[in-house]
Amino acid sequence: MTIQAHFNTFDKKIYLTNHSKGYQEAKAKDEGILSAIKEAFREAGYPIIDTFFQGSFAVYTAINSLDDDFDIDRALVIDASQAPDDPIAPKKVVKKVLENRNFKEPKIKKPCITADYQSLNLHIDYTVYALDSCPLFGDSYKLAVGKEGSDDNNKEWSPSDPKELIGWIDDAEQYGMKSLEKRKQFRRLVRYMKRWRDESFSAEVKKKLFSIGLTVMLKEQYAPGYLRKELEDDLTVLKKVVDNILDASYLEKDFWTDNYRLSVKLPRKPGRDIFQHKVDGGRSEPGSDYNLGNQFRNKLQRLQDKLQKAQNEESEVKQCTLLNSVFGDDFPIPEEKASNAARVAAASVAYLPVAGASGTSQGA
User: What is the pTM (predicted TM-score) of this model?
Assistant: First the structure.
């Protein structure tokens, strides 16, 4: 069996779709909540004219979480001509619905409303957009930005391009020949890297290593060749992408320090730094905090090293063992060869002295 066959098995285990086992209940909750939100928005005077998934489900890179949580990221769109002047108003409507639907302490954050369901491992984010449709210049989206209690200087309808971002990530035309196969490989690589993140970082750190940031880096650094063998060799292509990310300018050392910040710009409006960090006074500064930047660099270098060793290794079992150490137990180690090793180990036990014989311990 080739190493790619093991990558394919790994991908099947981690890939989360709308039809995956366990997701159906979360999907049903989402549909019920959406119906309640639509009714509440109609009553408020700004009916929802469109809604769509954002994030991983929109671009087919969702993965099963290690703790069986489900994340839903949904956009709610209202007509700009009916939108209230205060961008926090529709977010309060969403919050009220979530409070009434058994969610734990829904919070209005700057870009979205977020909450966790009390009796189901479901985390949900809603973003509210106002859409201005123009026949000449096309659709123009504005995101409701601001927290509950924000003053006029810290809330706004901010220009945004959610569908353009989804289209950029999902675009296959730029890949040329075998474009659809290359897009499938790109999606697999994103899923691998998201599972690497979840396996490699503490809960506190990995929640700051946003999936959209990983996705943008991989999209910008994925450069598939024209040979079919590369499309059937995720190990080699993933190693190249990791090399490219480390060689790019995402990680920069601050002057006069040995600390790094991670910085990735959204390729579409509003073009903000995905990993911007908070400083005293609540302001946001470009780049991540040092902890995230340093850890990402160190752990990515470790991944690079393990991928290189796996490429150099001739033993299939040793290759898979190396990859299992960075991607977790869902990356398979060949059972047949592993069981052969177990039989050898068991046979060697037969030659050990029997427990309780002279000179042996019956304890520990």
Answer: 0.88
